[in-house]
Amino acid sequence: MRIILLLFIILLFASCQDEVLIKPKAQLRLAYPIANYEELHLDLPYHFQKNKEVVLKEKRNNALNLYYPAMKATFYLTYQKVGKNNLDSLLRDAQKLAYDHAVKAESISEQPFVNKDKGVYGMFYMINGNAAAQAEFYATDSVQHFINGALYFDAKPNFDSIYPAVMYLRNDMRIIMETLAWKTKSVSYTHLTLPTIYSV
After folding, report:
1. Nearest residue to 150 (alpha-carbon basis) of 199, 107, 98, 200
2. Which end of the chain is more exposed for a tag (fewer CB within 10 A), N or C?
3. Could you tell me the pTM of the whole model?
4. Following CA atoms 164, 153, 87, 142 in sequence, which dihedral angle do they give, to the nearest 10 degrees?
């Protein structure tokens, strides 16, 4: 009888432990450093402020790659001179590059950009969804300079996973557009009119 009573007491104490709680699935926390910007100092026909975290790689024809090692993302900048009759085709090509992602994108939002004081006119595209590029823009003075930029990640696109990085990098792209200026100013930008293809 004592053995049964002893077993009963042991079982009683063993069953009085804290209830087992199943931990919820953890969410991945992606925290990026606060962006600090500095002026770009290169021998290019344009300049802007860039994130200090960026690794620069100069390319031919005044093109530039801005690589973000922590996010494994690259912002590709291409530059072209505006000729006598090529602005319409440059604008069409830039718009086509953005909308080529419509097949995979859930939506593409446009934000026009105008800075008359610096002679910078352009469009910023936010590409949402599992498209190859997550943002694009173009900027021009409509007389001499044309820049096109596109943001790509070094991974198969999964918008839900890269969303925090996309938002961080889109903000950097906006800073680039807002601080963009041309190094050669031979015209007054306040009286320019853009072709009809350009919708501001």
Report:
1. 98
2. N
3. 0.75
4. 40
CA distance 160 to 148: 26
SS (H, E, C) the chain: CHHHHHHHHHHHHHCCCCCCCCCCCCCCCCCCCCCCEEECCCCCCEECEEECCCEEEECCCCCEEEEECCCCEEEEEEEEECCCCCHHHHHHHHHHHHHHHHHCEEEEEEEEEEECCCCEEEEEEEEEECCCEEEEEEEECCCCEEEEEEEEECCCCCHHHHHHHHHHHHHHHHHHHHHCEECCCCCCHHHCCCCCCCCC
